[in-house]
Amino acid sequence: MAAVCAASRVLGRKIVSSKALPAVCQASNRKLHFSIYGKKGDAKVSDGISTQYPVVDHEFDAVVVGAGGAGLRAAFGLSEAGFNTACVTKLFPTRSHTVAAQGGINAALGNMEEDDWRWHFYDTVKGSDWLGDQDAIHYMTEQAPAAVVELENFGMPFSRTEDGKIYQRAFGGQSLKFGKGGQAHRCCCVADRTGHSLLHTLYGRSLRYDTSYFVEYFALDLLMEDGECKGVIALCMEDGSIHRFRAKNTVIATGGYGRTYFSCTSAHTSTGDGNAMVTRAGLPCQDLEFVQFHPTGIYGAGCLITEGCRGEGGILINSEGERFMERYAPNAKDLASRDVVSRSMTIEIREGRGVGPDKDHVYLQLHHLPPQQLASRLPGISETAMIFAGVDVTKEPIPVLPTVHYNMGGIPTNYKGQVITHKNGEDKVVPGLYACGESGCASVHGANRLGANSLLDLVVFGRACALTIAETDTPGEKLSPLKSNAGEASVANLDKIRFANGSTRTSEIRLNMQKTMQNHAAVFRTGDVLKEGCEKMGSIYKTLDDIKTFDRGIVWNTDLVETLELQNLMLNAVQTIVSAEARKESRGAHAREDFKDRVDEYDYSKPLQGQVKKPFEQHWRKHTLSYVDPKTGKVTLEYRPVIDNSLNEDCAAIPPAIRSY
Amino acid sequence: MMTRASSFSSVKTFFSCVIFCCDKGKVHKGLVQHPLKMSLLRVCCIAATGFVKRGLLLESTYTACFRTAGYASGGATKDKEPLKKAKTPQGRFDMDETESKSKDILERFPDDVNPETKEKGGPRGPEPTRYGDWERKGRCIDF
User: Fold this and answer.
1) Can you list the GO cellular component terms from the UniProt entry (chain B) (predicted)?
2) Is A660 exposed, middle or buried (0-12, 13-18, 19+ CB in 10 A)?
C-alpha cells in the first residue's frame, strides 16, 4: 500500500534543458532529465517563472499542507468525499510532532459517571479565560464524543474499563455540572502513547483513500491572486525541483512554532511555516502572544520534568544554593502554581543568580530525598535525568528553565475552519483557504489551553475543514486561471538565500533570536523588558539580510531549508513579542507584572448593575490580529472581538466571570 | 519444484566445480592469469546467479505459500541459525550480559489489566495523572 504512495511521487523527471545554465551548473553540463510518472500524468513542466528553476505544475481539487494529526484527518476526509487531494509535507507523516503527544484526549462520553458535553464546554470556555470563541468551542465539545468514537472505529486502541467501554480518567481542569459537581473523568488514552497511536491510525486509514502524498516537499508560499488562495508552491527537497500545486482549496495544518524560543518541547521542525506563509500573503495571524510555558524543562533537551518532583519534596535552587521559592511564595514554596514558579525562576535568572556558564537556568534538586522513595514514587526519573540531562539524580541537581510547550495562537479561522480576516468590523472569509490544528486558531484554547484538549482540536477541526470543503465545492471542478509567473517572489527568495554570502551564519542568527525571545518574551513580561525585546528583535530581523549560507547545491540542501525555516520563525517571533508588548493586561498564559489584572468590558469581580461598558478600544477582551511587512519586519496590530454566542440554543453561552480554580 | 535444500546443494556443487576448474587450471598452466581467472569466475557467477535466481524465485513462491498456509501450524521450515554477534571473551572489564540488558522500569500488569482501576490496556506504572499533570518516567507529558 505504501508503494502506491511512493509510486505516485515523481520517480524520474524530464525538464526542458535550459540554454543558459547558471554559473554553478557550468561544472557539470550533464542535461537533467525530468519525466513525470504517477497517477496524474498531466503534471506539466513550465518555465513561466524562470528558466533556471523550471517548475512542475500539478492540479488538484484540494491541497493539504502538513501531515500531522489535523493534516491527515483533513486529507483523508477530503479523499473520502471524492476530492482529488494532495498532501504536501516536509516530514514523513508518522514523523510529525503529533507523535510526541502522549497525553490523552478529552471527550464527554459519560463512561465513568454521568457526563454532558455542555459541562466540557463550560470548562473549556473558563480555561480560555473568556478569550475563546464560544461557537468554535461549542462545535468542538459537541463533536468530541463522535470524534473519539470515530477514531476508535478506525482502530485506535483506547484503554478500556471492565465492561469494555473506553476508560476515562480525571485530567486537565475538567469538572461536572458547570464547575459545581466536582472532578470529571473525561480523558481517554491509549496506554502511554495516545498521540503516537492517533497519528499511526490516521496514517493507516488515509492509505485506504486516494490521497497523493508529496513527502519531503517544503511548502514555500501560498499562491494568492485577488485575495483568493489558489494553491501552494513548494520545493522538493530530494531533487531541488519547484512544484506548484494549483487547487481550489488549500488547508494549512503545519503545527506550532516552539522553536522561536531557546527552550521548548517541540521538535526542531516546529517552525511555524503555515503562520509565516499566511503572513507573507498579507493576511493576519491571531493571538500569537499567548504561548504556554511549563516551569521545569530540562536545559538543552527541552524535556519537561513533572510537577510531582516538587510534590515529592524536590526544591528549586539558584546559584547561591538558596531555596528561592521561599521568598516568592512563603506558604506554598515550591508547590506554588506553575505561573508563579515560572515567574520566580525567570526573576532569579534576570537578577544574575542563574547557574551554568551563561547563568541562564536554575537547578531542581532531588538528591536530598531518599533514593528508594524516588524510585518507588517516581519510577523512571533517574533514567530520564541521565538520558536528557546527563546527571545522576541521586547525586546532582537537574538543570531546568521555563519551557515553551504549546502555541495557542495561529491563523484565525471561524468554527468551520475557513480562514478569516477582519474588515470594517466584520469577519470576512478568505476564499480557498482553511486552517486547522495547532497552526489554526478557531480559538478554542483562547488564552490558555487545557490539557488533553489539543488532540481533540486536531481531529475535530481537521474533519471540519474537510466537511466545509465538501459542502461548498464538488470534485473535479475546473480551476480558475493562474498567472504563469505565480510564485515568482518565492523562487527569487529561494535563489537569494541559496547564494547568500553575508557575514552571519543561519545558526548564529537563530540562536540570537531564541535567546532574545527566551529573555524578553517568556514568562516574565513587563513593559520595559518587552520594549527592549521588541527593539532587539527588530535589529535581529535586519541581520537576516546579511545571512551567509554555505551549501550552493539544490539537492537536499538542508542549509537552504533551515534558512527558509529561520525566515518563518522570525516572522512568528516578531509578531509574538510585539503583540505581547501591546497587550496591557494579564490573561491566561500572558501574564504581565505591570498589569496584573484582566481588563474586560465590565469589571466582572463586581456586580454588573450600574457599570458602564467600556468601548472596544479600552478593554482587552479581544483577539489580536498581527500583520508583518516581510521586508522591514514591522508589525501592525488590529483587533477583533471575541465571539460570545454559541452556535444554537442547544447550549447556552457562558457570560464572562472571574476565573478562579 | 526445487526444494531449498536441493537448490543449495546444486549451487554448491556448481561452485565447487568452478573452483576445481580454476585450481586445476592453476596447477596445469603454472600461473593462471589474474584477469583470466576473474573473467572465468565472472562468467560462472553470472551463470550461477541466473541459475540460482530461477531456483530461488520458485523457492520463494514455495515458501510464501507455505508461510501463509502453515504459519499457524508453527515451526520454522528452515532450521536457520539465529544471527548472533560473536561473544567477546569475558574479561575483567566486561559487564555481565544479564546486567547490561536494560530492565524495564515500568512493568506490565498481568494481562494488561491495572489491578486497582481495572483499566485494560492503560498506561503502565503508577497513575500518570496523580500529580495533576500527565507524568511518565518523571517527565511531564501534558499539563
Assistant:
1) mitochondrion
2) exposed
